[in-house]
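Hi L., both proteins are below.
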Amino acid sequence: MEKKTYQTFRVLIGTSVGALIAAAVIMENLLLAFVMLILGTLLSYFVKKNVYEVTEDERTSLIASKASRMAMLSFLTIITVLGIGLLTLKNNFPEFTQAGYTLSYSACLLLLFYSGFYAYYNKKHG
């Protein structure tokens, strides 16, 4: 399969899966939405496996790496600030305390994942 065909299939798969998940959520069938997500991921994997041209190079990989790192750090900063902010307001708004704890624990988990993957790849490539 050539690169242009692969890109067309990716768009079709993404659009179809998104529409089917939206329909499943509207019908309140979360199991169907989850199944559609898994099937879309598998279909995308098998389509990519049949591509014989180069679809990404070092530059694309570097850009994706930097973009994902900045997205992760931005998200981490936002949820940390929101979590701590909600926890400081727990006396005035006790209904948001659980959300504050959830955001704070999510930030900690994300930091643990990042540290673990960083250590793994640093050891593997360093």
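That was the first. Here is the second:
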Amino acid sequence: MLRDLADRLNEVGPRYIDALIKEPTYEKFLELSTGFSRDIGFLTNELESRIRACARYADSYYVKKGALVFLTRNDETEQLLGCLSKLELRGRVFQLSNVGVEVILYNDR
């Protein structure tokens, strides 16, 4: 997949990375992640049309490595899962880490 998309990723990727570095906020990440998914061709009009009804329960959504990812608030998770279920899409819930970046060094000796 990456070989097929390498030229497009090299063309589009830096623009999105630069925009996030200039404004590293949650809101900007939401905007850019969806835009990148559209721009690179992962998030198609057909898919967006299919999930449009469920998008109201999410802050945003994007596609990464073939997985549709919704970012939502805890109090809207059940509504989002129910909506996806009606579309015959199975959702899995993951929590964002509150730890932040963590570096773990291992000694291989």
